[in-house]
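Page 47, continued from p. 46.
Same chain as before, 116 aa.
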Amino acid sequence: MGLIGVEGLQFYSHHGYYKEEQVLGGKYVVDIYMKTNLAEAAATDQLTKTINYEQIYQITKVEMEAHSKLIEHVCKRILDAVKGAFPEINYIKVRVSKHNPPLKGNVERVFVELES
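Result:
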């Protein structure tokens, strides 16, 4: 068993509860961690025997482009889409961070993390 992490996927997206967030958009960062059997990829040096990071990015990009009010919803969509594309994943954790959320204070970011 091995762990693959794809960290710091950056997007400018239009998620948010408030209309201003949906119109103006903001910076989001996504981190994805997946456990799977990496023995064959390690032994053969073949991309087809592992999880392709480019595909992970493209799946995430598509989900980040679909507007949502809650980052909880975005996070769940990413998790489900990645799991659907790679059934060999035994465990997945997805974190969606929203930078500079519209709170009444100085807050760098908030995040939601889901795992399955």
